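Troubleshooting log. The previous structure file for this entry was overwritten by mistake, so regenerating from the original sequence record. Sequence copied from the archived sheet and checked twice against the printout by T.R.
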Amino acid sequence: MMAAVMIFSASVFAQDDFTVNMSTYTEFYNQKNYKDAYPTWKWCFENCDDRVSEKTTKNIFIQGPTILENVIATREGDAREAAIDTLLIIYDKRIQLYGQEATYLGSKAIMLNKYRPQNYVDVYNMCTRVFELAGNSANYGVLKLYMVVALNRYEKEEISKETMVNVYSSISDALAEQVEKETKEDKKAKIADAATAVEELFVNSSAADCKSIIDVFSPKFEADPTNVELAKKIVKLLRNGNSDECKLSDLYMRAAIVMYENEKSSAAAHAIGQAYFKRDESGKAEQYYNEAISLEENNEKKADMYYELGLLYFTGMNNYQKARQAARSALAVDPNYGKAYLLIGRVYAAGGKGCGNDAFENKWVYWVVVDQFQKAKSVDPSVAEEANKLISTYSAYFPKASDAFWADMKEGATVTVGCWINETTTARFIK
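Regenerated output below.
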């Protein structure tokens, strides 16, 4: 009987100890006094067992990382490392008690990378495991980290280029799907930012060359040539390539055609148009560009397509009037699209040299050329540097003041440049 009482008393004592320590650390925690919360939190963490309710245990795990990260920030040497060890163990115990391995292992990977980036191989393996478990629903922060550590391993020649391309492709697809499905705008924006970061990391890496992408995906496409999702992935990867070689490849063209045949989308038509443009097949390129523009609902993308169509008319077909019309269409969609004005200026410079009755009038065209470059930088600061260089170049071709004297024309006079250009401008001369 006495033994039973002693056991009971010990149990009650332990439970009372837990209650007191739990209350103590919680009070400090609520005051954001994490330094003083740490000792009693640590005791609760090490002594929680079946006698403690699940809700109470979860609070220990939920509040623990905040306490520990603040403690880590104030410690050095072995004490700091011990606190980091405890932080990492939290996630192991959560997996052990509650499952949800993908969630808690992802959090552990983020913390391990934060405090022990030298353990990047372990972080990589954790991220790989998270993706195996969660697939495209894996946390976007973990997916971004996965890309970072994968590139680290690739740059150290610890994983192959093929593996790197496949990792990127999987991450990119997962993030794209999450952006599409997410309904909360703030979270959608964060996922989109992660997707953009992943794209930039890959495109700026040495893994993003056409040959490696083609080598990895050609056998896959040959084995499954009607797979639309695979075709989309190939087009996306090759479109992001760093040279025209990507869009000139047979794989790009074939994948783009599969996309288009299965869904008459703007993206598919645009991909084919770009490919034909790069191959100097201007007639076919024009057809698909017009199709892409007609299907596109996003004004930013539509303006880009009109601009590319203008370049096609200008450089591929020498059709200056159509090039100007395409550029004007881009401006109708986006009045601040500076590159369209730059294109019109170049078109006038190339195609308007004979729009006068004599040598003096033939130089008037350079006034409207420079006008377009001035408009470009006035609406779009991002093209200002290029516009200024072009202004400097073409201002040198203005008529001379001495020629203006004999033509009885004064500085600032309003004149119209004729023929197909038909633009009104202001007279300016050089000495």
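The radius of gyration is 33 Å. Archived copy saved in two places this time.
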